[in-house]
Amino acid sequence: MIISALVFCLTAGNLISIVSARAAVQSSARYGPWSATYDDAVSSVQCQPHEVMTGCDCHSWWGSCDGARIVDGNNTDTCNAYNRYNGSGVYAVAVCMDAPPDWEARTVIGGTSGGWDDATSAATCAFDEVLTSCACHSWYGTCDGAIPNLSQNTCYA
């Protein structure tokens, strides 16, 4: 049951600017193409150049997700969703936010969990960052889900 927790952290000049700007910020969902059906086939999607990616998930109507993760790129992030073994294909779903150019986002990947049932992985944002997304990824299709603990700024999967 080896999994990793993934958390996406957002930072600006200070937390007050993030909190005060939230009301004026617009978010949108972006969808990748349907993936192939072989093991670990990928569906990918990116945000528009003026947007910051604040979340990434995998969607399938048939339980085909191995999970999703944000891959940090040169000046752009990519949301990758992965099809499981014998899966029927998946969509990558990114949450993108119009944000001031001085805002930055980063992905934190928790350590690999133990191999037993209900073993957990945790990923934590720094004290000056805001947790914006919490997800689970497993190459083996063994995620039970992910739960954010906002008071600890941590995602548990």
What are the segments in which pLDDT stays under 50 over at least 5 consecutive residues?
13-24
Query: Element order, helices and strands?
Result: EHEEEEEEEEEEE
Helix fraction by DSSP (H/I, runs of at least 4): under 10%
Largest β-sheet summary = 3 strands, antiparallel
Binned strand content: over 45%
Distance between the termini: 11 Å
Morphology call: flat
Rg calc: 15 Å
Q: Give, in spatial order, the strands making up the sheet with the most strands.
A: 8-1-10
Arithmetic mean of pLDDT = 78
How many strands appear in the DSSP assignment?
A: 12
Number of helices: 1
* SSE-based structural type: mainly beta
Description:
With 157 residues, this protein is mainly beta. 4% of the residues lie in helices and 46% in strands. The protein has 1 helix and 12 strands. The chain has one helix spanning 15-21; strands spanning 4-11, 27-31, 42-46, 51-59, 65-72, 77-83, 91-98, 104-109, 122-124, 130-137, 147-149, 154-156. The strands form 4 sheets. A 3-stranded antiparallel sheet has the order 8-1-10, with no helix packed on it. It is flat, with a radius of gyration of 15 Å. It starts with a strand and ends with a strand. 41% of the residues are buried.
